Amino acid sequence: MIDFSFGEDLELVTETAQRFSDEQLLPAQRDFEQQRAVPLAVLQEARDIGFDRIDWPESSGGADMGAVARVLVTERLAGGCPGAAIALQPLGSVAHALLAFGGEAALRQHARSLDRPGMRAVLVFDHRSIWQGAGDALSGSVPWWPADRVDLLAVLSRTGLQLVTHGISVLPLPGAGLRAAGASEIRVDRTPVDAAWTDPTAAALALAHARVHLSALIVGQMHAAAEYARKYALERVAFGRPIAHHQALAFLIVDMHSAVDATRQLLHEAAWRLDAGQPATEAAATALIEAVENAVFIGSNAVQILGGAGFMRDYPVEKHMRELRALGLLLGGADAARDDALGAGDASLAPISFLAAGALGA
């Protein structure tokens, strides 16, 4: 007999994250977006619960519950507000980059330096090798990132990691998505590097964790968009019956939810591989590609199901669409993940997106 349940501990964690999202994030998501920040009281409550350290080692103050737990928590928080979900995890993917390169000592050191609520670390993936280092100094920029404050900048390449804590220029931007976490251009110019490592194996592991975290944010927001559109279609009446009962729209709603479930399965497999110590580079890249591609499909169609109302701020789907598009730009998006998803160069290993597989009858 195969047991697909999460287990008592993971079920409790999932329920706690869902309740926090429903009570603290979802009702206030528009306020967070307008203020470009999550209130310190909410940040502190999330920290007290331990969302940001759910998968950290116990010796570093974490719960040591693994990548699957992190994914389950992040999905639920992102369903309420993905920008807030980013802000609630101040070290975010930087934590696992530190673990991969410097071990628990590096994580504890930098976690202490970001101990105050509101402090933020940012992980940038230099997939185009455009960041330049001269000796112990680093120069480069990110034209947009969901942060209005950066206390620790981690620049990850395919071969190593560099950390910068001083001389980080943050220029606020208007931003279209994820504004609850902020929106800024980040720049460093011949800034001293605090620490640096070179290890391609560690780089691949850190990148896999980062892609899994990002995919979880996307899946959580995709589910929120698809579910809101479904409920709206069941309540909106046209031609004497709910619009969800019209065949074409019913098929579209099913396709949207199927796309969410398909992406979630790939994501959970990648997280399981990380927990099991198995190679996860291709699985994490595949999960991110599917998430980014299906996010475009779900976000735009959730708006279309509501018609003209979908573009109004009275309904959340216009925000869902913006958030999903913005999330798809991080870590180089699907384009940067394709080479890793191809494995050793065998095109047959490339992921087949839900849409390309003919889910819409193609």
TL;DR of this structure?
This protein has 362 residues and is an alpha+beta fold. It folds into 3 domains: 1-89, Orthogonal Bundle (Butyryl-Coa Dehydrogenase, subunit A, domain 1), CATH 1.10.540.10; 118-198, Butyryl-CoA Dehydrogenase, subunit A, domain 2, CATH 2.40.110; 201-349, Butyryl-CoA Dehydrogenase, subunit A, domain 3 (Up-down Bundle), CATH 1.20.140.10.
Features:
362 residues, Butyryl-Coa Dehydrogenase, subunit A, domain 1, Butyryl-CoA Dehydrogenase, subunit A, domain 2, Butyryl-CoA Dehydrogenase, subunit A, domain 3, four-stranded antiparallel sheet, 10 strands, disordered C terminus
Walk me through this protein's architecture.
The protein is of the alpha+beta class and 362 residues long. The chain has three domains: 1-89, Butyryl-Coa Dehydrogenase, subunit A, domain 1 (Orthogonal Bundle); 118-198, Beta Barrel (Butyryl-CoA Dehydrogenase, subunit A, domain 2); 201-349, Butyryl-CoA Dehydrogenase, subunit A, domain 3 (Up-down Bundle), CATH 1.20.140.10. The chain is built from eleven helices and ten strands. The chain has helices at residues 8-25, 29-35, 40-49, 66-80, 82-87, 94-113, 200-235, 247-276, 281-305, 317-327, 333-341, and strands at 121-125, 132-134, 137-145, 152-156, 160-164, 169-172, 184-192, 195-198, 237-238, 241-242. A four-stranded mixed sheet has the order 1-4-5-8, covered by helices on one side. A four-stranded antiparallel sheet has the order 2-3-7-6, with no helix packed on it. A two-stranded antiparallel ribbon has the order 9-10. The longest helix is centred in the middle third of the chain and has 36 residues, at 200-235. InterPro entries: Acyl-CoA_DH_CS, AcylCo_DH-like_C, AcylCo_DH/oxidase_C, AcylCoA_DH/ox_N, AcylCoA_DH/ox_N_sf, AcylCoA_DH/oxidase_NM_dom_sf. Residues 8-105 form the Acyl-CoA dehydrogenase/oxidase N-terminal domain. Residues 203-333 form the Acyl-CoA dehydrogenase/oxidase C-terminal domain.
